[in-house]
Fold:
Amino acid sequence: MNTDEIVFEAVSDMEGERIDKCISGYLDSLSRSYIQKIIKDGNVFVNDTAVKANYKVRVEDQIRFTIPKSVEPDIPAQNIALDILYEDSDLLIVNKPKNMVVHPAPGHYEGTLVNAVLYHCRGELSGINGVMRPGIVHRIDKDTTGSLIICKNDTAHNAIAALLKEHDITRKYRAIVFGNIKEDNGTICAPIGRHPTDRKKMAVNEKNGKHAVTHYNVLERFCGYTYIECQLETGRTHQIRVHLASIGHPLLGDDVYTKQKAPFRLEGQVLHAMTIGFVHPTLNKYMEFEAPLPDYFTSLLKKLRQIS
Structure:
């Protein structure tokens, strides 16, 4: 079987980490579960010796792992309409609608963005993340709308993943939060990790969290709510939702990170990935794309302006 081989040397801040966590931090385009599968299949070597997932990394360890080329996925290609913002032979930029899951998971193998892009791209997708996540280099939540990059080949995938790792991708979101944010702009710098008691949630976690930074600017204030733009410096799971909740301004409609009830008929948090910008991996020029606000968002803004 053809494989991609990746080799790197462990540095000081990797000392003592489990090998699966170490690889995940080095190449965050791969999911932790997929890395564990690679290890279980005997494709990860430290100093030329195959290791198990619980191996603790030492400084200057030579880490080598191989990623098997993906096989034909058993995830069905489905003719689901895509809102395409841009497309070429390397990339596809889509505007994801509300209530669409990005990639399949146990019990949810159809109706996802992956099902749609499998049909649209017909085999032209990066296989780095395996059969469950072909072409997927980053994601947004089911109830978050907006721009996403889909990679059509492994070269593009590796290039975009490297930009994500170095925080070199522009990602601007629009959101409506509870309460009136007093400052016109600000920065939230607080590490994010798993919630200590609820493993399905994330939380500001000083002990085990990863560095996370969110910048925000107030766009408009209403009676009891604030319309803002957020720019991600890092990209942790649920970062905007967790950070804004941590400063007392959770997202309107977020039923996970706040108990406050919104007096509007909403389907999840009011959050839209509006702008995405990056240096194209082949054209080598900066490109930026904007996903227009969805109808539900503009309608909500109109209502808030009427009652304020």
In short: The first helix runs from residue 19 to 26.
